[in-house]
Automatic annotation (TrEMBL):
The keyword Cell membrane does not apply. Residues 1-232 form the ABC transporter domain. Part of the ABC transporter complex HmuTUV involved in hemin import. Responsible for energy coupling to the transport system. Keywords: ATP-binding, Nucleotide-binding, Translocase, Transport. This is ABC transporter ATP-binding protein. Pfam families: ABC_tran. SUPFAM superfamilies: P-loop containing nucleoside triphosphate hydrolases. SMART domains: AAA (SM00382).
Amino acid sequence: MRGATLSLAGRTILDDAAARLAPGEVLGLIGPNGAGKSTLLRVMAGMQRPDAGGAVLDGRDLAAAAAGWRARHLSFLPQEDVPPPPMRVEDLVALGRLPHRAHPERARDREAITRALRETDLLDLRARPGSMLSGGERARMRLARALAVEAAYLLADEPVAALDPAHALNVMASFRRLAAGGTGVAVVLHDLALAARFCDRVMLMQAGRVVADGLPQDVLTDMAMQAVYGVAVRRIGQAVIPWSLTE
Ligand SMILES: Nc1ncnc2c1ncn2[C@@H]1O[C@H](COP(=O)(O)OP(=O)(O)OP(=O)(O)O)[C@@H](O)[C@H]1O
């Protein structure tokens, strides 16, 4: 991706922010509220056209690519949650297969839906109406729909924000399994411990700029955490825990 610059309503939202996502890696996007993580993820997905720069996949400008092509190659899980219609969970997850409808392969669709339900621990809830799910169950259903696409790249915006610790660990382990199978995964996270433990690479954003990009241990330094978040951290193994405010 070429460094993206974007202004909205007279404010600079992205300032020459560049990202690359390789097959088989889990990339974590971290940074304070309003840093530009969601906007950068949308640019990476080709869903937001920046004023300059932009994302390229297989030589194509993603923002100019046909929506169907984009949806088959790249699965995007937005941060925003909208109340699901009163459809069964498995039918809502099956919507993730829509980008493939020009080439219907029923058995393959069924397998992909079942795999996604299993990865998100929703097999037991598959027949329940989506409108009756708890907040965390709903978040898992939305992730399952994104997983069911089985695209080469998955871009997920805060997929674990509503999840209990066990399900959050499970989702991060799913991302590692996907990456082991060759998928490129970019995930926006606020949990520094998960970023440190599960990401191959971490990009730290502040005020629309990428201020660090590298191995978790090289990015999540005491100095960076203080400078960007204003927090002092403690560490358990690789995990980084925000401990106190420094200002
Ligand atoms: N359509 C828009 N018009 C004007 N400003 C916008 C628009 N969309 C986002 N912004 C601003 O851009 C900045 C970056 O927003 P973005 O959602 O990318 O941040 P973020 O890092 O994902 O934040 P959070 O952690 O709170 O989700 C914010 O200051 C936000 O208010």
